[in-house]
């Protein structure tokens, strides 16, 4: 039996996602969407055309809206569907996802902007219960009225703020923030991500705004969604975005370059071909790659970079999910995307950086200079970032250990590009 979900972008139907009797996905644009020269493609990998897209063409984009790895397995079990059934998962979770779209059953329309009412802020005990529940029930799957999803392998849930208080959204309400509890099996992940993200912000990289919070001694991270805009009338508008794997037609299970996912050469090519201002965005991507090396983030894969479709045209989205994986010796040191054919952080040398410059299509002198400059800026800001975060009752021991680890990486990383 064929099943269908209408794909909405604001108050218009973009097209329809279908699942045939064999379980295969398909997607077709709506004629009215195709006829309007002002409408965008849903993805760089799904250009506007009348012919329907088959599973191998559309699955990377739609599967890329869903949680990954263990989170996907748990949420599928909670919902009583197969973890491999993208359609059933989107049917249950695809109301508020990354970007501008909503996936709704045929005949159902998005709720009006002012029909949501005002959700109640969660008190401390309700927040603690939420932190306990998320690892067991990702995105609060199965909760009446909630259809929420985000990519990634970590527990999280999209939320709204009522004043300064965290609240669960009303049915159909666009969320404005992402709540991330700490990862139980790793020490200090809230401090780690908060520190690395704030450090990136301190050296003037374009990053999502993050706020670590503590409730009754429990930490969590609150991340402001860059794919949302609050208008003057208070209405929250969704802004479309897609990660690099979606844009390149790479399914999420192949996000790592060693598994067929994008490498940096693919990423820089994507930015040059799609950004409205490719020059500045190429430099932003270069700076992000350098920053990740210096802070020891080996897990920067294709789903950790996105294109944001602003009114002025596509741009490289603010950075997100920045973490020092080197802080955890049990994690692999292998780079998710090689730097100049170097597979690990420890192998990186001048020849590796020089080859990276070739892959990026950027002059070697500029790459070498940017490595030195970013290393200097990181070193200059570490102490102040630690002080700011320590004042928020975060674990000062973890913060200082992170600062020491990164400070010890600064000089060798800078030297590796200058020899």
Give an account of the 3D structure.
The protein is of the alpha+beta class. Helix content is 36%, strand content 18%. It is built from 12 helices and 16 strands. Strands 6-5-7-9-8 form a 5-stranded antiparallel beta sheet. Helix 8 runs antiparallel to helix 9, helix 9 packs across helix 11 and helix 10 packs across helix 12. It is globular and about 60 Å long.
Spell out the blueprint of helices and strands.
Blueprint lengths: L2 E7 L2 E8 L5 E5 L1 H5 L19 H9 L5 H11 L6 H8 L7 E4 L19 H10 L23 E6 L2 E3 L9 E4 L8 H14 L7 E6 L2 E7 L3 E3 L5 E3 L2 E3 H5 L15 H11 L3 H18 L10 E5 L2 E4 L17 E6 L2 E3 L5 H11 L3 H27 L5 H23 L1
Antiparallel strand pairs: 1-2, 1-4, 2-3, 5-6, 5-7, 7-9, 8-9, 10-11, 12-13, 13-14, 15-16
Helix pairs in contact: 6-11, 8-9, 9-11, 10-12, 11-12
List keywords for this structure.
419 residues, single chain, alpha+beta, 4-stranded antiparallel β-sheet
Mean pLDDT: 94
Q: Choose one word for the global shape.
A: globular
The total of beta strands comes to: 16
Order of helices and strands: EEEHHHHEHEEEHEEEEEHHHEEEEHHH
Q: How large, in whole angstroms, is the Cα Rg?
A: 21 Å
Give a short account of the largest sheet: 5 strands, antiparallel
Q: What is the terminal separation in angstroms? A: 63 Å
Low-confidence stretches: none
Total helices: the number is 12
User: Reading side by side through the largest sheet, how are the strands ordered?
Assistant: 6-5-7-9-8
Helix content: 25-40%
